[in-house]
Design brief:
- It is globular and about 70 Å long.
- The strands form 3 sheets. A 5-stranded antiparallel sheet has the order 1-2-3-4-11. A 4-stranded antiparallel sheet has the order 5-6-9-10.
- The protein starts with 8 loop residues before the first helix and ends in an 18-residue tail after the last strand.
- The chain has 367 residues and is of the alpha+beta class.
- A hairpin with a 2-residue loop joins strand 5 and strand 6.
- It has 9 helices and 11 strands.
Length: 367
Amino acid sequence: AAAERQMDSVTQFTLGAAVGAAMLGPRVGMRKAALVGGLMGTVPDLDTFLPSPDPVTSFTSHRGFSHSLIVQALVTPLFAEPLVRVFRDLKDKRVLTYLAVYLIFATHALIDGMTVYGTRLFWPIYEHPVGVGSIFIIDPLYTIPLLFVTLWALLLNPASLRFKGWLKGALLVSTLYMAGTAVLQQWAGKQAQAWLDTQGIDPERTLSIPTPFNVLYWRTIVMDGPRYLNLYHPLIGEGVTVYAHPRHPELEGCLANTGAFRELTAFTKGFYSMEETDGKIVFSDLRMGLTPNYVFRFKLGEMKEGLPRAVNPPTREPTVRGTNGDLDWLLAGINGDHTVRPAEADAYQPETGFKLAADAALPPPCS
């Protein structure tokens, strides 16, 4: 589950390796520096192994204290000082070593913060996750330059000016790419808002995020009363493709009074839906995955005598991987083609005659 909430481990290892090689490589050798940096780059994710009382808490608590820039500064000496003592070439470079370790930790947390799941960058001063949501958890275009220089360093242990140039270039390109995703996210948001204005829709909230593995095809989630809209818009091409889905707020009922429901609604920032499946009431985080295959789904209750009743403890529902036709649809969208996604075909909204009116459906009374 942790891999579904953070930048993938390959990316974190290669970023740490590249930072380590750039800062410590000239002193201890590129191979050793890259290996140490890569291993250090995975340390913040050790919080994954901390026990949690239930699946909901496990979901909301990851990327906690170990991803805090404040905590990372405090624990840096615990990881940096052994390096100074083990590598004799670092004995007179204590400040450089401490700075390198902190940057390896901090860059891990910062790129996690660029994903939609977010991370508690300023815990304990600010306890809420910071999540930009401008990059998918796996983005080959970001990772490939870092992977290239990491493999070069590990396999060849180079010391040439040529490698140092490539190393600096990989770090620069990946950093500019990450910054560029935030710019594209703003563009996607403006595209969505322009369409909403033409339809006279004033939503509660919107969120623009990239579709899986790329930043060329974007999805904007629009929360609009008892429904949510998926707006897909390509970077290449014009216009949006729209799908409308019910949120089923009538299923919340007494669940709204439970700690699990309040914890999930706060963590998802309101981007969620409810559904009833075989008598189970399931809460889905709309930010992770594509309709209907959302990654984080939790059974919070059951229907009894026509009313939703909470279950304790809540359980996580299995994730259904992949949907027929999604790969072709995704590639078409990246190329700028407005094709209808098979998994959402029933909810497709034509360019004219927008349907599925947002008539409020109220939860039943809590008894």
